[in-house]
Structures are given as structure tokens and as C-alpha cells.
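hey so u asked for the seq, here:
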Amino acid sequence: MRTIDYIYRFDPKNPSVKPPPADPEDARRSLESGNRLFSEWMRSCRTSTFSTGEPRYVVQCNGLEVGMVRAHGEMPKQAPFAVVVGCSDARVPPEMLFGQGFNDLFVIRVAGNVLADECWGSIDYALNLLADSIKLVVVLGHSGCGAVTAAVDAYLNPLRYSSARTTYMLRSILHRIFVPVHQAANGLAKVWGPNAATMPDYRRSLIESAVCLNAAHAAYNLYVEAERSWKSDVLALFGVYNLFTHQVSMPPQNFRVASSDSEPHVNLAYAPTHPREFDVLALQMAEILRPDVEPQQFAAPAGNGETSLGESHASRPFAQPRTPAAPQG
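ran it, C-alpha cells below
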């Protein structure tokens, strides 16, 4: 049979073939490498590159994950290594697109990946009751997000927001996204000029920039909460899943050049640590999305990804890592 297999594998003779990440950086690399695996599988599906012999796209599952290791009939212990706050969109399944198996991720999904009270309750539960295993908290936005699109359309046409068709429940989501939309619009106006709103692809660019800023805001709030809770050993990250390339990155590719044939462009960014960084990201996205220049793929910074301690955070690209700050007493 000619198939393109994406397999979850458990080996009873070697149930611990996939050990949990040792530290936050190892956990970040696990998510990024898992997404590369998934995006390559999706590209194989599109190009009909069939599997021959040993399947190429295999997600290892250890005994703990599938509940095979238990004592005296006890249920397996919940031990995810990352909290993922993502959108409810059915096209964006976090475990699959990050190449993870059972018991790897504590997933919270809500339209627009907004942080409402119920989300905060789940996050607080994970950071405190699952503290022994949690290494990361990740905010996952995605291109073409319906909630962000609705917020952008309400920003461009306020009467739409006030109409009877926009229910109170929907407005409770949209109003949490208006600040990122406004910052994205300011970034486009500064880079594209005062007539930005009349230029080609303005609405779509505003949506894609707002998607990034919306994820950045949530990641910043998670960073602040982790610091407040003295959880400085837990890293806060964010990224945007591209529905065309199936890759998670920050900043994402220009939608005018992104395609399923794009080379792997995967990275999770570290959460902003100061509100001024939202303006930096808004300007960066406006430059990437400019319609009057030849679109180019954004390349992640070269080198080993380490950041010198003396470097100003405001001057660093969002893709680069940093060492978590110790709590101040």
C-alpha cells in the first residue's frame, strides 16, 4: 500500500525510549523539532512523497504516556512538560502539530487564544499542581485566526461591533483583542505611511500582524504571572502556526511568499518582558508585510541562539533565547 504515514509508536521492550525534557531549553527544542517533523509530513502529503520501508514520520510514546507503567492498578500520573494556550480552531491541534504524544502537553484552547478567567484558572493549576514536570508555557496563535479577523473587522467598521449580530459572548472575546489590533494598525501606519489603510492587502496584513501581537500580549501576561508566582524556571514562549506551511514561528513568513513548499522555518520566541516590545514587534511585522518591497522569507538569527548578558533585550530579535531572570526578593 502506498501511504504517507504519521505514526505514534510504543515499544513495550523499550518503554522509556522518549525521556521527558531535562530542562526548559530541551523542552523548547522538543516542540520545535516536533513541529519540523509534522510540517515535513504535511509537505510529503502535498507532494505525494510516499513512505517506503521504515516510516519516516514517527512520534515516540513512552510507557508513562500510554498508561502502561502503573503500580497496584493506579492511574498513570499526569506529567506534561509544557502548557500550551491555543485557539479552538479545528485546524490547529497542538499535540499533533508539535509532534507530541499522550501526557506531553497540558492544552488550553479558546477562540483567539485569549486569557479569560477560566484560562487563568487552568494555567494556575498547571503551574502549581503540575510544577514537578512543567518546563514551558506557550501561547500558540495561527494565521487567519477567526477571532482576530472579527476584531480587525470591528476595528475597521465599529458599527459591526455594536450590531445585534455580535453577541455579548462574542464581544467578550473581541474586546480582549482590540489593543493588539490597534498596535498592529499603528505599526502599519508608521512603516507604510499615513495612507496605509488604502494600500493592497492592508486588511490581511493587519490581521496577520494582530495575530502575532495578540499572541505576544498573552505570552507577556504569562511571563509576568510566572515571575509573580516565583516560577522563574518556567519559560514563557509564543509562536504563530502558519496554515499553509504548517510551521510554527515568530515572526512568521510574509503570507505572500509562504507556501507548503517553503523550507522549514520553525522557532518559538521568548515572551516580551516589557510593554515597549509590542511596538518593536508591530514595526517588525509591518516591515515584513510591506507591499512595496520584494517579499522575502524572514530568517532566524544565525549562530547558536545564545544571547550575551550585556545585550539590551529591546534590540534583540524575538527569535533569540534569553536566560530567565531570578525572582527579586
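The radius of gyration is 20 Å. The domain at 77-291 is CATH 3.40.1050.10 (Beta-carbonic Anhydrase; Chain A).
lmk if thats what u needed
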